[in-house]
Task: inverse folding
Protein backbone atom coordinates (compact mmCIF):
# COMPACT_ATOMS: atom_id res chain seq x y z
CA UNK A 1 0.00 0.00 0.00
CA UNK A 2 1.26 3.47 -0.88
CA UNK A 3 -0.79 6.46 0.24
CA UNK A 4 -0.48 9.85 -1.39
CA UNK A 5 0.38 12.46 1.28
CA UNK A 6 -0.86 15.88 0.20
CA UNK A 7 0.48 19.30 1.06
CA UNK A 8 -2.74 20.64 2.55
CA UNK A 9 -3.99 22.88 5.35
CA UNK A 10 -7.78 22.97 5.38
CA UNK A 11 -8.98 24.45 8.69
CA UNK A 12 -12.70 25.35 8.82
CA UNK A 13 -13.62 28.53 10.69
CA UNK A 14 -15.77 26.48 13.06
CA UNK A 15 -12.66 24.81 14.51
CA UNK A 16 -11.49 26.01 17.91
CA UNK A 17 -7.81 25.70 18.79
CA UNK A 18 -6.02 26.89 21.91
CA UNK A 19 -2.24 26.83 22.01
CA UNK A 20 -0.07 26.44 25.08
CA UNK A 21 1.99 29.56 25.74
CA UNK A 22 5.54 28.27 25.40
CA UNK A 23 7.15 31.70 25.20
CA UNK A 24 7.11 32.46 28.91
CA UNK A 25 9.04 31.68 32.06
CA UNK A 26 6.38 29.25 33.30
CA UNK A 27 6.96 27.01 30.26
CA UNK A 28 10.48 26.04 31.33
CA UNK A 29 9.55 22.42 32.08
CA UNK A 30 7.79 22.08 28.71
CA UNK A 31 10.81 23.46 26.88
CA UNK A 32 13.04 21.06 28.78
CA UNK A 33 10.86 18.20 27.53
CA UNK A 34 11.44 19.42 23.99
CA UNK A 35 7.82 20.52 23.51
CA UNK A 36 7.86 23.42 21.03
CA UNK A 37 4.21 23.46 19.85
CA UNK A 38 1.17 22.09 21.67
CA UNK A 39 -2.50 22.69 22.21
CA UNK A 40 -6.08 21.59 22.73
CA UNK A 41 -8.19 21.51 19.56
CA UNK A 42 -11.86 21.01 18.79
CA UNK A 43 -11.90 20.24 15.07
CA UNK A 44 -14.86 20.07 12.73
CA UNK A 45 -15.81 18.29 9.52
CA UNK A 46 -13.44 18.85 6.56
CA UNK A 47 -10.44 19.67 8.77
CA UNK A 48 -7.34 18.21 7.12
CA UNK A 49 -3.62 18.92 7.46
CA UNK A 50 -0.85 17.17 5.57
CA UNK A 51 2.79 17.56 4.60
CA UNK A 52 4.63 15.20 2.22
CA UNK A 53 7.98 16.27 3.67
CA UNK A 54 9.31 14.22 6.61
CA UNK A 55 8.75 16.00 9.92
CA UNK A 56 11.71 17.10 12.01
CA UNK A 57 9.66 16.70 15.20
CA UNK A 58 7.93 13.89 17.04
CA UNK A 59 4.13 14.27 16.95
CA UNK A 60 1.78 12.95 19.64
CA UNK A 61 -2.03 13.10 19.32
CA UNK A 62 -4.46 12.13 22.09
CA UNK A 63 -8.09 11.71 20.99
CA UNK A 64 -10.51 13.00 23.63
CA UNK A 65 -13.73 12.51 21.64
CA UNK A 66 -14.99 12.02 18.11
CA UNK A 67 -12.79 10.27 15.58
CA UNK A 68 -9.95 11.26 13.31
CA UNK A 69 -7.60 9.55 10.90
CA UNK A 70 -3.91 9.68 10.18
CA UNK A 71 -2.28 8.46 6.98
CA UNK A 72 1.38 7.84 6.33
CA UNK A 73 2.76 6.60 3.03
CA UNK A 74 2.58 3.02 4.29
CA UNK A 75 -0.45 2.85 6.60
CA UNK A 76 -3.81 4.30 7.64
CA UNK A 77 -4.79 4.72 11.30
CA UNK A 78 -8.22 5.30 12.89
CA UNK A 79 -7.84 7.65 15.87
CA UNK A 80 -10.67 6.89 18.28
CA UNK A 81 -11.69 8.07 21.74
CA UNK A 82 -9.08 7.53 24.48
CA UNK A 83 -6.34 6.63 22.03
CA UNK A 84 -2.86 8.08 21.59
CA UNK A 85 -0.72 7.92 18.47
CA UNK A 86 2.98 8.77 18.32
CA UNK A 87 4.57 9.64 14.99
CA UNK A 88 8.36 9.93 15.29
CA UNK A 89 10.43 12.48 13.43
CA UNK A 90 11.25 11.39 9.91
CA UNK A 91 7.70 10.50 8.82
CA UNK A 92 5.41 12.41 6.48
CA UNK A 93 1.73 12.29 7.38
CA UNK A 94 -1.75 13.62 6.73
CA UNK A 95 -4.52 13.72 9.34
CA UNK A 96 -8.04 15.05 9.77
CA UNK A 97 -11.60 14.60 11.04
CA UNK A 98 -13.35 11.41 9.99
CA UNK A 99 -16.98 12.42 10.59
CA UNK A 100 -18.37 15.55 12.25
CA UNK A 101 -15.94 16.51 15.00
CA UNK A 102 -12.74 15.50 16.73
CA UNK A 103 -11.32 16.82 20.02
CA UNK A 104 -7.60 16.28 20.48
CA UNK A 105 -4.67 17.13 22.74
CA UNK A 106 -1.46 17.31 20.76
CA UNK A 107 2.27 17.87 21.07
CA UNK A 108 5.17 18.50 18.71
CA UNK A 109 8.46 17.63 20.40
CA UNK A 110 12.07 18.05 19.43
CA UNK A 111 14.02 14.87 18.83
CA UNK A 112 15.84 14.86 22.18
CA UNK A 113 17.64 11.83 23.65
CA UNK A 114 14.87 11.45 26.25
CA UNK A 115 12.45 10.59 23.41
CA UNK A 116 14.75 8.05 21.76
CA UNK A 117 12.21 5.32 22.47
CA UNK A 118 9.72 7.02 20.14
CA UNK A 119 12.18 6.82 17.27
CA UNK A 120 12.99 3.19 18.02
CA UNK A 121 9.38 1.97 18.18
CA UNK A 122 8.17 3.77 15.04
CA UNK A 123 4.53 4.85 14.70
CA UNK A 124 2.46 3.47 17.56
CA UNK A 125 -1.31 3.66 18.16
CA UNK A 126 -2.64 2.50 21.53
CA UNK A 127 -5.35 3.06 24.13
CA UNK A 128 -4.56 5.30 27.08
CA UNK A 129 -6.02 5.92 30.51
CA UNK A 130 -4.03 9.12 30.97
CA UNK A 131 -6.45 11.36 29.08
CA UNK A 132 -8.09 13.03 32.14
CA UNK A 133 -4.74 13.81 33.78
CA UNK A 134 -3.20 15.31 30.66
CA UNK A 135 -6.32 17.27 29.73
CA UNK A 136 -6.77 18.70 33.24
CA UNK A 137 -3.12 19.75 33.40
CA UNK A 138 -3.24 21.38 29.97
CA UNK A 139 -6.46 23.24 30.79
CA UNK A 140 -5.04 24.44 34.10
CA UNK A 141 -1.84 25.58 32.41
CA UNK A 142 -3.82 27.45 29.76
CA UNK A 143 -5.72 29.28 32.50
CA UNK A 144 -2.80 30.02 34.83
CA UNK A 145 -0.30 31.11 32.16
CA UNK A 146 -2.63 33.93 31.13
CA UNK A 147 -2.65 35.78 34.43
CA UNK A 148 -3.96 39.30 34.05
CA UNK A 149 -1.12 41.05 35.87
CA UNK A 150 1.54 39.53 33.61
CA UNK A 151 3.61 38.18 36.52
CA UNK A 152 5.04 34.64 36.40
CA UNK A 153 2.65 32.08 37.87
CA UNK A 154 4.05 29.36 40.13
CA UNK A 155 0.84 27.39 39.56
CA UNK A 156 1.40 27.47 35.79
CA UNK A 157 4.96 26.20 36.29
CA UNK A 158 3.68 23.29 38.36
CA UNK A 159 1.06 22.39 35.76
CA UNK A 160 3.78 22.49 33.10
CA UNK A 161 5.77 19.97 35.13
CA UNK A 162 2.68 17.77 35.50
CA UNK A 163 2.10 17.81 31.74
CA UNK A 164 5.60 16.42 31.22
CA UNK A 165 5.17 13.79 33.93
CA UNK A 166 1.82 12.59 32.56
CA UNK A 167 3.14 12.62 29.00
CA UNK A 168 6.00 10.37 30.08
CA UNK A 169 3.55 7.98 31.72
CA UNK A 170 1.20 7.94 28.75
CA UNK A 171 4.06 7.15 26.38
CA UNK A 172 5.44 4.60 28.88
CA UNK A 173 8.78 6.34 29.13
CA UNK A 174 9.70 5.75 32.74
CA UNK A 175 13.48 5.82 32.98
CA UNK A 176 13.57 6.66 36.68
CA UNK A 177 17.27 7.60 36.93
CA UNK A 178 16.77 10.02 34.04
CA UNK A 179 13.79 11.62 35.75
CA UNK A 180 15.83 12.15 38.90
CA UNK A 181 18.65 13.73 36.89
CA UNK A 182 16.24 16.00 35.04
CA UNK A 183 14.64 17.18 38.29
CA UNK A 184 18.10 17.89 39.70
CA UNK A 185 19.00 19.94 36.64
CA UNK A 186 15.70 21.82 36.85
CA UNK A 187 16.64 22.80 40.42
CA UNK A 188 19.84 24.30 39.00
CA UNK A 189 17.90 26.34 36.46
CA UNK A 190 15.60 27.55 39.23
CA UNK A 191 18.67 28.91 41.02
CA UNK A 192 19.63 30.74 37.84
CA UNK A 193 16.11 32.16 37.44
CA UNK A 194 16.11 33.33 41.05
CA UNK A 195 19.59 34.88 40.72
CA UNK A 196 20.08 35.77 37.04
CA UNK A 197 22.60 38.52 37.86
CA UNK A 198 25.01 36.09 39.56
CA UNK A 199 28.18 35.16 37.70
CA UNK A 200 27.75 31.41 37.87
CA UNK A 201 30.59 28.96 37.38
CA UNK A 202 30.45 25.42 36.10
CA UNK A 203 32.05 24.25 39.34
CA UNK A 204 29.20 25.78 41.36
CA UNK A 205 26.57 24.01 39.28
CA UNK A 206 28.39 20.69 39.50
CA UNK A 207 28.95 20.95 43.26
CA UNK A 208 25.21 21.38 43.89
CA UNK A 209 24.65 17.95 42.30
CA UNK A 210 27.85 16.52 43.78
CA UNK A 211 29.25 15.59 40.36
CA UNK A 212 32.22 16.69 38.28
CA UNK A 213 31.97 19.70 35.92
CA UNK A 214 32.51 17.45 32.90
CA UNK A 215 29.68 15.14 34.00
CA UNK A 216 27.41 18.14 34.50
CA UNK A 217 28.22 19.34 30.98
CA UNK A 218 27.36 15.92 29.55
CA UNK A 219 24.02 15.80 31.39
CA UNK A 220 23.01 19.22 30.09
CA UNK A 221 23.96 18.24 26.56
CA UNK A 222 22.09 14.93 26.87
CA UNK A 223 18.80 16.28 28.20
CA UNK A 224 18.67 19.75 26.65
CA UNK A 225 20.74 19.36 23.47
CA UNK A 226 22.64 22.55 24.29
CA UNK A 227 25.57 23.75 26.37
CA UNK A 228 25.40 24.90 29.97
CA UNK A 229 26.03 28.53 29.08
CA UNK A 230 23.54 28.54 26.24
CA UNK A 231 20.95 27.30 28.74
CA UNK A 232 21.88 30.11 31.16
CA UNK A 233 21.59 32.65 28.33
CA UNK A 234 18.18 31.23 27.38
CA UNK A 235 16.91 31.71 30.95
CA UNK A 236 18.24 35.28 31.08
CA UNK A 237 16.71 36.12 27.72
CA UNK A 238 13.32 34.72 28.78
CA UNK A 239 13.44 36.96 31.85
CA UNK A 240 14.57 39.89 29.71
CA UNK A 241 11.55 39.49 27.47
CA UNK A 242 9.15 39.32 30.43
CA UNK A 243 10.75 42.41 32.00
CA UNK A 244 10.55 44.38 28.75
CA UNK A 245 6.88 43.50 28.33
CA UNK A 246 5.75 44.15 31.88
CA UNK A 247 7.89 47.04 33.16
CA UNK A 248 9.30 50.38 32.04
CA UNK A 249 12.77 49.72 33.42
CA UNK A 250 15.59 51.37 31.44
CA UNK A 251 17.84 48.95 29.56
CA UNK A 252 20.67 49.77 31.97
CA UNK A 253 18.62 48.47 34.93
CA UNK A 254 17.54 45.34 33.05
CA UNK A 255 21.17 44.67 32.13
CA UNK A 256 22.21 44.93 35.80
CA UNK A 257 19.39 42.64 36.93
CA UNK A 258 20.43 39.97 34.42
CA UNK A 259 24.17 40.12 35.03
CA UNK A 260 25.31 42.04 31.94
CA UNK A 261 28.09 44.64 32.14
CA UNK A 262 25.99 47.42 30.61
CA UNK A 263 23.00 48.09 28.36
CA UNK A 264 25.11 47.78 25.21
CA UNK A 265 26.33 44.28 26.04
CA UNK A 266 22.77 43.31 26.99
CA UNK A 267 21.28 44.77 23.80
CA UNK A 268 23.75 42.89 21.63
CA UNK A 269 23.09 39.64 23.52
CA UNK A 270 19.32 40.11 23.11
CA UNK A 271 19.75 40.84 19.39
CA UNK A 272 21.90 37.73 18.95
CA UNK A 273 19.31 35.55 20.72
CA UNK A 274 16.04 36.95 19.31
CA UNK A 275 17.19 38.69 16.13
CA UNK A 276 15.95 42.11 17.26
CA UNK A 277 17.24 44.77 19.64
CA UNK A 278 15.30 45.01 22.95
CA UNK A 279 14.16 48.58 22.35
CA UNK A 280 12.74 47.65 18.94
CA UNK A 281 11.18 44.49 20.37
CA UNK A 282 9.35 46.47 23.05
CA UNK A 283 8.09 49.00 20.49
CA UNK A 284 6.94 46.20 18.18
CA UNK A 285 5.02 44.29 20.86
CA UNK A 286 3.36 47.41 22.28
CA UNK A 287 2.29 48.48 18.79
CA UNK A 288 0.78 45.03 18.20
CA UNK A 289 -1.09 45.17 21.52
CA UNK A 290 -2.37 48.66 20.72
CA UNK A 291 -3.57 47.52 17.29
CA UNK A 292 -5.31 44.51 18.84
CA UNK A 293 -6.98 46.71 21.45
CA UNK A 294 -8.15 49.06 18.70
CA UNK A 295 -9.49 46.14 16.63
CA UNK A 296 -11.37 44.73 19.62
CA UNK A 297 -13.10 48.07 20.11
CA UNK A 298 -14.35 48.22 16.52
Result:
Amino acid sequence: MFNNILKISNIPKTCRERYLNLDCEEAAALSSCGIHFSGVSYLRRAYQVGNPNPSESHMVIFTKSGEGYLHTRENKYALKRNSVITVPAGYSSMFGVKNDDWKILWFYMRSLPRWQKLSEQGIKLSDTGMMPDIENSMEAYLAESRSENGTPSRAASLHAELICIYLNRALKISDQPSEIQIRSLENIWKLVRDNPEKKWTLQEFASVLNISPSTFQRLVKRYYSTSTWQKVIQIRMEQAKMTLLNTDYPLKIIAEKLGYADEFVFSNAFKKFYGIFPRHYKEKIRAELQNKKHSDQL
